[in-house]
Each structure stands twice: as C-alpha cells, then as structure tokens.
Amino acid sequence: MKTALVGFMGAGKTSGAQTLGPGAVDVDAVIEQRSGRPVAEIFAAQGESAFRELEERTTLELLDDPTVRAVALGGGALQSQRIRDALGGVRVILLDIDAEQAWQRVGAGRDDARPLARDREQFERLHAARRPLYEALADVIVPASCSLRLGEILAAVEDVTPGEARVLWATAESGEYPVVIGAGLVGERAFWPRALSGRRVVVSDYNAAGLYAQAFEPALASIRIMPGEQSKTLAHAEIVWTEMVRHGVTRTDVVVALGGGVVGDLAGFCAAAYQRGMRFVQVPTTLVAQVDSAYGGKTGVDLAEAKNYVGAFHQPSAVLVDPQTLTTLAPEELAAGYAEVVKTGLLAGGALWDRIRGGAPANDLQVITGCALTKLRIVAQDEHDTGPRQLLNLGHTIGHAIETVTGYARYRHGEAVALGLLAALRLSGAEDLREEVSELLAGAGLPLSLDPQVSVEEVIRATARDKKRVGEGPVPFVLCPAPGRALFGQVVAPEELRAAVEELRA
Ligand SMILES: NC(=O)c1ccc[n+]([C@@H]2O[C@H](COP(=O)([O-])OP(=O)(O)OC[C@H]3O[C@@H](n4cnc5c(N)ncnc54)[C@H](O)[C@@H]3O)[C@@H](O)[C@H]2O)c1
User: Fold this and answer.
1) pTM of the predicted model, to two decimals?
2) Cα separation of 462 and 452, whole Å?
3) If 175 and its partner were Cys, which of 156, 265, 311, 315 is the partner (CB 3.0–4.6 Å)?
4) Which residues share a beta bridge with 403?
C-alpha cells in the first residue's frame, strides 16, 4: 500500500519520507526540480492559487504513479478535495507538530521564512485550521520528534490495517508504544500486535472479564478482582501478585489490563513491580479509561487516607482501544467518563472543545481519539509530572478530595471530577464557561452539587494532601480561564477554596 505523509510546515515530512527507503518523493522537491525555482519564488511570482493548482496536479500524478511508494505532501495539500479523495486507498501518516515548535523550526521571523511562515498570528491560525483536517484523515499519527525514525515506527505497526483501526504513536521519556483505536478490535478474537511476544496474563474485574476476557485466549492466566474503586488497594495488588506466582508468570510474559481505570491502574502497578517490572498492555473498556487513564503510564493504588498515593510510572507496551466495548457499559459509567471528556476538551480547546460543546455523544470515536491525542501530547512533554502534565489534574484536586472523604464509595471517579471541574472553573473566575460546563455535565446526568452530608472542612483538609503539593508549600491548582488556556501550579487563597467547595453544597 502506498504511503502519504501529511503535516504542517516544519513537521519533517521530507526527512521522514527519506527514512521510508527508495521510491519516496517529496511533492515540493519535485515541483522545484521540474520548474527550476524554489516554491517561495513560485508563490511570489504567480500567487498562492496558481501554486495550489500546480501542487494539486503534481500530487495527484505522484499518488497515481506505481513506481512511487511514499509521497510527502505539502502542508496545504489537504485543502484540495481531489487530493483528499485520492488518498482513499493510501496509508496516511501525520507527522504531528504543535504551532510553537513549528514556528521555531520554520518561522520565528527569519528573513528566509516560507511565505506562510512570516506572520506569527496568521501562522497560528493556519495551524489551528489545518490540524483537525490532518487528524481526520490520518491512519497513523506520529509526533514530529520521531520523523527520523518513521520507517522503523511504521514497520512496528504494519499489522494494523488502515480503515479498520488507527494508530497514535505515544512517546515518553521512558518508552514508546502504539495506541491502536478501532471498532471491533477486541471482537471475538482480539487484535494483538505482532511485535508483542510472550504469554498473556489477563488481569480484569468480573464485569469486564465476563464480557471480553475470552477474546484474549489463549492466556497463561486469567486473574479477576471485584469491580470498583475499593479493589484499587495494596491488598488487591498482593492478591494479583500471588496468583501470578501460582501460575508461574515470568518477566517475559505480558499482563493484559482488561477493564476500566481501576483495573488499568492496579494491573499496571502489578506489572511495574512484579519481578521488578514486566510489560503490560492496556485494553480500556470504560470511557474514563479510553479517554484518559489507559495512556501515560501512571499506575498505582489508593490508601484509605489519600487517592493514588502509592504507585509507579510504567508505560504500557501497547494500548488497544475498541469503542464498541462501551456499548455494554452502564449509562452512569458512560456519564462518569464524560467528565474526563469535558476536562480534556477544556485543556485542548480548539476543534476538540468545539465538537464536545456542539453535543457530540460521550462515546464519539473522534472525541475519544482527540482526547487520547491531547493526553499523549501532554505526557510526551512531561512524563513524570513535574510540569505541564499537571494540567491533566484539572478538576481533580478537589475531585480526589471528595472521593477520599466519601470513602471511594459515594461517587464514581468521574462524578467527583465533574464536581471538581465546577469548583476549578469557579476558582478560575470563568463564569460563562462554568455555566456552559454545568449544562454539559447535567445533560450527561452528572451531579452538579455535593451531597449535603459531605463536610466542607474534610474536603478542604483532604485537598491539602494532594500529591502535587511540595513539602509545606501551597497546594498547586490547575485553573482554566478559557478553553485551551489552562494553567498549572496556581496558588489559590484559602477563602476562595472554601467558597468554591461551599458553592458545590449549595
Ligand atoms: N492512571 C491514570 O492516568 C488515571 C486517569 C484517570 C482516572 N484514573 C483512575 O481510573 C479509575 C476510574 O476508572 P473507571 O471509571 O473506568 O472505573 P472502573 O474501572 O471501576 O469501571 C467502572 C465499572 O465499569 C465496569 N466495566 C468496565 N468495562 C465495562 C464494559 N465494557 N461493560 C460493562 N461494564 C464495564 C467495571 O467492572 C466497573 O464496575 C479511578 O481509580 C481513577 O483514579 C487513572
């Protein structure tokens, strides 16, 4: 199958194409070679629309040429409907770059900057307009930082059939892995990456296992825990480890974390510590897990005193996401996941937020993919939570405190996050946004007010134990004055915190 490389200016499409071996061509380079002039000169002499026509003709010809195996497209080529149509039977790879990085690479006020990279605001607008177009068409999305290893990465995901599933290539300081997203991926017999050798050890809860564990047979062991947050404890980790020993699990085997966030966090932690670390694959089957918890390698368990207090950073070897598994999920669980969808949309802003506020259903495939991409982009910058990853805590500082003081039993994680989001937007002074978010959360059936029996004092005290706190310093909050503009490490005055929590009780 032919490959097309798409992406914004500066993403490294030309060098990426070169890693794909002979038969790879770059449309801009072909145009320059044939016309004997640089693209910038054609732009200046004939204007953008004449260049676009030439670009369309050349791109269509190269996509049709059987001797060409890979084509690096120009950054604006996907604006052409004819080019988009011609990509039907082609594997489309997006080299993903954010606006800031792209500006540093090709714009930044350089005298020799490309024609569309001379004005920063125009550049950012163009990036915001084109990125969703690239994302919608891409079969594989790879961070631009990996452009020189593109050939190797594509070889690792060769067994994923375009049209049936998409791949997001996740990167973090400690490791990289494919996130494969496709309806029917679990099915009767689950998709399993060819590159992943080793016997499978399925760790799941009774609900998810009853529905989907069969698809992962043959497995060396199938270990089940009781469903629910109360199973996310050290005692349960010990049960899993003991079962693993009894089944003769060794370090070269692979744990399959099949279920929601509870199973993912617990099984991932068990994999991180068993014989000092073994591989695991996340197979998220709840919305919370598909839009958030399955990515980024945070694993761990709760203590009675505080949530997620003991754990490890341990990246999965792959994440397999089948949105069809959400069809068996209880409506309240889907609603709980919607709180994480709204959180992620607020962090991303732009097209993702527009789609969510426009009423996309909770389990919309594009929304799930957009949320996964948003989280992966953040984790890629800061795996260990010392900087921007803290953004993912939006709504969680107070949300986790509510979960803790109610014994992890009164509210689902997502329900507590919904309340935490409202408090965080109050602290952000974002009145209109809080109103809009309230409506979205209420529409999904999520609570907008705190059970009057919950003590405000206790919630405030539990907030002070938030893991992001350093020493005796203030608890850092994530505030979100506007979609896409969240800030981490913000200090909140005690009286403001009290007012925001009290308001939830109103
Ligand atoms: N590691 C992270 O980065 C991260 C991020 C967000 C949340 N989390 C954690 O995730 C946990 C919450 O996850 P959750 O909301 O998925 O809860 P959960 O794992 O308890 O699942 C919710 C319920 O859905 C059931 N279930 C799972 N899949 C099903 C399916 N396909 N059909 C029918 N029932 C199904 C489960 O058995 C359970 O009863 C919390 O502990 C939270 O701290 C972790």
Assistant:
1) 0.95
2) 17
3) 315
4) none
Strands (DSSP E) found in 73-163: 91-96, 140-143
Nearest CA to ligand 1 atom 20: 228
Question: Residue 392 and residue 227: Cα distance in Å, rounded?
Answer: 25
Average pLDDT, the chain: 95
Averaged pLDDT, 116-123 = 86
* Residue at token pair 């490959």: 3
Domain ranges of the chain: 3-156, 175-329, 375-505
Edge-to-edge strand ranges of the sheet holding 140-143: 24-26, 70-72, 3-6, 91-96, 140-143, 166-172, 175-181, 318-321, 279-284, 254-259, 200-205, 221-225
The string of pLDDT tens digits covering residues 175-188 is 999 999 999 999 99
**Residue partners of 177: CB distance under 8 A and separation at least 6:** 169, 170, 315, 316, 317, 318, 319
Count of C-beta atoms within a 10 Å radius of residue 218:
6
Q: Give the Cα separation of 419 and 311 in Å (integer).
A: 25
Residue having the nearest C-alpha atom to atom 41 of ligand 1: 262
Pocket, ligand 1, Cβ cutoff 6 A: 205, 207-208, 211, 227-229, 232, 259-263, 265, 285-286, 288-289, 292-293, 296, 298, 308, 325, 328-329, 333, 336, 412-414
For residue 285, report the distance from its CA to the centre of ligand 1, in Å.
8
Quick one: CATH architecture of 175-329?
3-Layer(aba) Sandwich (3.40)
**Quick one: pLDDT at residue 325?**
98
| Burial class for 323, CB neighbours closer than 10 Å (0-12, 13-18, 19+) | buried
In order of 38, 191, 198, 262, 296, the CA distances from 194 in angstroms are 43, 9, 11, 27, 22
How buried is 101 (Cβ within 10 angstroms: 0-12 exposed, 13-18 middle, 19+ buried)? middle
| 283 bridge partner residues | 258
The CATH number of 375-505 is 1.20.1090.10
Return the amino acid letter for 86.
Answer: A
